[in-house]
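Entry — protein

Goal — fold tokens:
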Amino acid sequence: MSTATATSRHPLPDVALVRDLFGMLFDGLTVKAGGKLDVSPQSHAYVGVYIADDGSPSALCACDLALAANSGAALSMLPPNVAKDAVKSKELTDVMLANLGEVMNICTRLMIQDNTPHLRLQQVCKANALPAPAAAIIGAARGRVDFEIGLGKYGAGVLAVMCM
């Protein structure tokens, strides 16, 4: 876990943790520090909103369209060209969306440890459809880390984790 987030209620993951978690799901995985993901409403990013036990948004896990399509296709072993077509059309299939929800649910483990408050995935939505309390985390996050994740023959994308 990253030590750069001492003021955050939840620690940020490091490359090793992301590699371990995603490595249980995907073959041909590569993980490295990435450039900052655009999560503005104009982007085509997808965002997982994680809430605390009191129902307040406490963390976000966002991915670009490429990672959303690639992970959504790879999880069901759809052909890589299906993911490429989704990126080109900027629309995920229903299967990709359902699989992205599963990936984002598993990403909860990137932000919680035995000694941190509980988090659960509330929803996955496009960045332009984020509820205001969740969108506020983008500018107010106490910690953020971005990764470039390669999924072998499917391609690479960017994942960002933001915690309050």
Observations:
- Helices lie at 15-23, 65-75, 80-89, 94-106, 132-140.
